[in-house]
Amino acid sequence: MVAKGAAQFFYGWWIVVACLASTLIGNALGLFGAGVYLHAVVVANEWPIGALSGAITVFHVVSALLLIPVGSVINRHGPRAVVALGSIALAGGVAGIGQTDAPWQAYMAFLAMGIGWACLSTTAVAATLAPWFERYQGRAMSIASLGASAGGMLGAPVLLYGIAQVGLARTTALAGLCAITFLQPLAGFVLRHRPQDMGLSPDGIPLLQHAAPATDGPCWSRLAALRTGKLRSVIAAFGIGMMAQVGFLTHQVTLLAGSLGILDVGYTVSATAVAALLGRLALARYADRINVRMTASIVLSTAAGAFCLLGLFTSTVALVGGSIIFGLTVGNVTTLAPIIVRREFGAVSFGAVFGIASCGIQLAAALGPLLYGLLHDAFGDYRNALLLAATLDVMAAAIIRFWGREPR
């Protein structure tokens, strides 16, 4: 990770830090913030939660459809313009949600947030890091993804506290301002396209030390990759897993608010994110040495157990304990998909291949909030939604374990 004869710090790790910061803000105000906005807007306007859950679905569908061009643009031109655009869109959507007084306005705000989140998503981060690391690609991706856990730890409680103290409109306006303030400098001054532009190759080895360019396997087209069981299994397993996960995260605040006080809800959401951070730290330590498909199967099975606990028991201990167990799986369900694709398809094709994979995963995930909302309105609680989520996760665990296999 150092240049020959010097203790120079490899610039790729600064790219990791920048990606960590962007995922922190994107997840705090996007993925984890969505549930807070949903609850606040529903309570303020007395709208049915099932009706507004469709706005969260729009958020995820829009971001899903943009993941293919996001991955391709970063692969070809670098991440600067993408992250700059994402910060503007996210800031506008978050600020707009605080000004809504009609459902259609909420839908438009979540649409803008979807554009922003696509530009700051796991796909964007993974495509940004792909050219910079080979030996340490699993570790780099896992470390960058720690920002998502930190965003969950900070986002929900800070947003809930701000809404309680100064109101939804002021809180979301300040949140949007923070997104612009932090992300624009990262895009302009820190992010770079490839290590070759700085006279380095992946992992920081000077280009002059290479007798010949390193090969990275075949160059996959999207269609060729989609024909493989390896990619289809990733799309199916993580699409199902993310559907269950995103649906729960979107409705977690509303689920907990039925039994806990608002501060305890914030603490529980934060504890969920702390658990996600611990899970990601463990993955960062061992990501480059484990069978990632087996690990993904274990993670999805653990999430299924957490959903069973939350669906079958309604005590405070069950709600908090189930949320924490679920939290251990949250970050790794998100992080393992790009690690598997990067390992099995290589860096050259990663932007295009994972772009199409993440689009399919995100489209499936977009159904989660709506599914939870409709089942809640139909049965009066979240029990059936949670038990269905547990069943789906068991299916996903079997798919990733037995359909496709990790190469030597």
Structural domain count: 1
- Average pLDDT number: 83
In whole angstroms, how far apart are the ends? 25 Å
Shape: globular
Q: What is the β-strand count?
A: 0
- Flag low-confidence runs: 1-7, 210-215
Strand content: under 5%
Q: What is the makeup of the main sheet?
A: none
Cα Rg: 20 Å
The string of secondary-structure elements, in order, is HHHHHHHHHHHHHHH
CATH first level: Mainly Alpha
Secondary structural class: mainly alpha
Q: Based on the structure given, which CATH architecture is correct?
A: Up-down Bundle
Our count of helices gives 15
CATH topology: Growth Hormone, Chain: A
Helix content: over 70%
CATH superfamily: MFS general substrate transporter like domains
How would you explain this protein's 3D organization?
The protein contains 15 helices and no strands. The model is unreliable at 1-7 and 210-215 (pLDDT under 50). The protein has one domain: Up-down Bundle (Growth Hormone, Chain: A). The protein is globular and about 60 Å long. The two termini are 25 Å apart. The protein is mostly helical and 408 residues long.
